[in-house]
Design goal:
Elements lengths: L9 E5 L5 H10 L4 E5 L4 H6 L4 E4 L25 E4 L1 H9 L3 E17 L14 E13 L5 E5 L7 E4 L4 E4 L11 H12 L8 H16 L4 E4 L4 H14 L3 E7 L7 H11 L4 E5 L1 H8 L5 H21 L6 E3 L4 H7 L25 E3 L7 H10 L4 H4 L19 H18 L3 H4 L3 E15 L2 E14 L7 E2 L4 H14 L3 E7 L12
Length: 516
C-alpha cells in the first residue's frame, strides 16, 4: 500500500458504545485498517470511503426511544457486508422490518451461547454453550425477512442472526471483549470469509503519514509540545520533532502533582533524547488554583486551563507559536465525549475536555486515533529505549485525581509517600511486570485506629492494581497476600497521617482505572 495514504477501511458506525474503540482495535490487531464514523454520517460519504465491510457498534439507547440513533435503509443496499453488534443488531432488525421488544429477562454478564444447526461456517468458532458477554434490555421477537436465527442463549431466542445471501449478520453479544472467549475469531471470520478482507494496515505507514500531515499543517510556523514524560507525549514529541525539526520546542511543566522524584527523572530522560526542552516550574500556581476544589471534573478542567496558561507564558518567550501538540489517545477521546454525542461522558481528560473553549493554539494530535499498545509499538520503531516504552500510564492531572477531595500540600505528601512504597515493593518484580498499573489513592474518609496504644482518627489509602492491554477494559491485578500485607504495613508505619490501607478489586467496567 502507499505509505502516505490510508487503505480502504472497515467502517465502524458508532452508536455511542463505550466499547466502539475496542472494535476498531480488534480489527487493527488483524492488520486491517478500521475507521470510526458517527451514525449520522451520510450514506454518500460512507460509500465514498469504499468500505470493505461495515460494523454497527453497540450503544446505550433503546430502539424504542424517541430520537434513538438510527441508520438509513439504504445502508443495507450498498452490497457491502454488515455486522451488527448488540444495539447494532437490534437496529438492523428494526430497520429491515423485524420486531424488537423489551426483553422479558434482561441479560447482563457472561452467559452460554448455543449456535443453531445448518448456519454459515463463520459460527463454527463457537462450541456449544461458549461464553459470551451480554448487555441488553431489548430483544428481537421477529426476524426480518430473509434472516434466520444463528444462535440463542437460555433467555434470548435470537442471540445471533444472519442473511448470508445479502451478507448481513448480527450478534446480540459483544464479540470485541475478552469475556467473549471466541469473539475475536468470529470478527476475523466475518471479515476474512464473508467480506474477503486481507491485511492492509501497518503502523510504519502510520508514522510516515503523520509526519507528512504535521509538516503540511505547521508549514513555516513554530510548534510547541506539551511534554509530560509519559510514552504518549514523548512519542508525540518525537514525531513532531522529526517532522519540523528546528521549528519545534517541547515544554515540560512541573505542576507539583508528580510522583516522588519523577520530575528529576523525566527531565534527565528527555534531555537524553536531544529534544529541544523548556522546563517550567509551576507547582505553586497549580496547587493554589486547586485549593478547596473537590469535584473531579473541576479539578481536571482547572488543570487543563492552567496548563494552557503556562504554555502561553512560555510561548511568548518563543514568539507565540501557533500550534500546540499533545499526546491525546483514542481512550482519552471516547471517555471525554462520544464521537456522535449520544454516549455518556465518563470523565474529561485535561488534554481533551479540560481545554478552554478559547485558546491561542491550534491543536496537533497525531496519536488521537491510537491505543496505548499501538503507541508503544510506534515508540519502539522511533528508537525509544525500553524503559520509556514500558513506562506505566500516568494521568495528565497527576496525583490531583488520586486524591479524592480537596488538594493540600499535606494530602499530596501522603499520597506521594504511599505511592512510592507501592512502587518500591512492585517495581522490577514478576508481579509488577504482570500489571498494567499499580498506584495509591488517598480516600476522603477518616477511620479510627490504634497506634502505640493511642487512639487515632486518620486517613485511608486504597492500593489499585490492574491488568489491561489498552486501558479500555481492565481486570483486577492479583498480588500475593504476603506482598499486600507488607505494602499495608509499610504505608501505615512510614506515612504520617495514614492508619488504614484497603485493596481496590474493581474491574473496568463498571469502574474506571483511576478513581476520578
Amino acid at each position: 500500500m502507499n505509505s502516505h495514504s490510508a487503505p480502504r477501511p472497515v467502517v465502524i458506525l458508532d452508536f455511542g458504545s463505550q466499547l466502539t474503540q475496542n472494535i476498531a482495535r480488534r480489527v487493527r490487531e488483524m492488520g486491517i485498517y478500521s475507521e470510526i464514523l458517527p451514525f449520522t454520517t451520510p450514506i454518500a460519504q460512507i460509500r465514498d470511503k469504499k468500505p470493505l465491510a461495515i460494523i454497527l457498534s453497540g450503544g446505550p439507547s433503546s430502539v424504542f426511544e424517541q430520537d434513538a440513533p438510527s441508520v438509513n435503509l439504504e445502508l443495507f443496499k450498498l452490497d457491502i457486508p454488515v455486522l451488527g453488534i448488540c444495539y447494532g443488531m437490534q437496529l438492523m432488525a428494526k430497520v429491515l422490518g423485524g420486531k424488537v421488544v423489551p426483553a422479558e429477562v434482561r441479560e447482563y454478564g457472561v452467559t452460554g451461547f448455543h449456535r443453531e444447526k445448518n448456519t454459515s461456517s463463520i459460527w463454527t468458532v463457537f462450541p456449544d454453550s461458549d461464553p459470551v458477554l451480554m448487555s441488553h434490555g431489548d430483544s428481537i421477537l421477529h426476524l426480518p425477512s430473509g434472516f434466520v436465527g444463528a444462535g440463542h442463549t437460555k433467555t434470548t431466542p435470537y442471540a445471533a442472526m444472519e442473511n448470508p445471501k445479502e451478507k448481513l449478520f448480527g450478534v446480540q453479544f459483544h464479540p470485541e471483549v475478552t469475556q467473549t472467549r471466541n469473539g475475536i475469531k468470529f470478527i476475523q471470520n466475518f471479515l476474512q470469509n464473508v467480506a474477503g478482507v486481507t491485511p492492509n494496515w501497518s503502523l510504519t505507514g502510520y508514522i510516515d503519514r503523520k509526519i507528512e500531515e504535521i509538516r503540511s499543517v505547521v508549514k513555516q510556523d513554530h510548534l510547541i509540545c506539551a511534554l509530560s514524560g509519559g510514552i504518549d507525549s514523548t512519542v508525540t514529541a518525537l514525531l513532531c520533532h522529526r517532522a519540523v525539526g528546528p521549528q519545534f520546542t517541547a515544554v515540560y511543566v512541573d505542576n507539583g502533582l508528580m510522583r516522588e522524584g519523577e520530575t528529576q527523572s523525566i527531565v534527565k530522560d528527555l534531555q537524553s533524547l536531544k529534544l529541544p526542552l523548556i522546563v517550567s516550574h509551576s507547582s505553586e500556581l497549580f496547587i493554589k488554583r486547586l485549593s478547596g476544589v473537590k469535584d473531579p471534573e473541576r479539578k481536571r478542567k482547572i488543570i487543563g486551563r492552567t496548563f494552557i496558561h503556562v504554555f502561553q507564558k512560555e510561548a511568548k518567550q518563543l514568539g507565540m507559536p501557533k500550534y500546540l501538540a499533545q499526546g491525546t489517545l483514542y481512550p482519552d477521546v471516547i471517555e471525554s465525549v462520544s464521537s456522535n454525542g449520544s454516549s455518556s461522558v465518563i470523565k474529561s481528560h485535561h488534554n481533551v475536555g479540560g481545554l478552554p473553549k478559547r485558546m491561542p493554539f491550534s491543536l496537533v494530535e497525531p496519536l488521537r486515533e491510537l491505543f496505548k499498545d499501538e503507541v508503544r509499538i510506534i515508540g519502539k520503531e522511533l528508537g525509544l529505549p525500553d524503559h520509556f516504552v514500558h513506562r506505566q500510564p500516568f494521568p495528565g492531572p497527576g496525583l490531583a485525581i488520586r486524591i479524592l477531595g480537596s488538594i493540600t500540600n499535606d494530602r499530596i505528601r501522603m499520597v506521594r509517600e504511599a505511592d512510592r512504597i507501592v512502587r518500591e515493593e512492585l517495581d522490577g518484580t514478576d508481579t509488577g511486570k504482570s500489571l498494567w498499573q499499580y498506584f495509591a489513592v488517598l480516600l476522603p474518609v477518616h477511620s479510627v485506629g490504634v497506634m502505640g496504644d493511642q487512639r487515632t482518627y486518620e486517613n485511608a489509602i486504597a492500593v489499585r492494581t490492574v491488568t489491561s492491554v489498552d486501558g479500555m477494559t481492565a481486570d483486577i491485578g492479583e498480588i500475593p497476600h504476603s506482598l499486600m500485607l507488607r505494602i499495608s504495613h509499610r504505608i501505615i508505619s512510614e506515612v504520617r497521617g495514614i492508619n488504614r490501607v484497603v485493596h481496590d478489586i474493581s474491574p473496568k467496567p463498571p469502574s474506571t482505572i483511576e478513581w476520578e
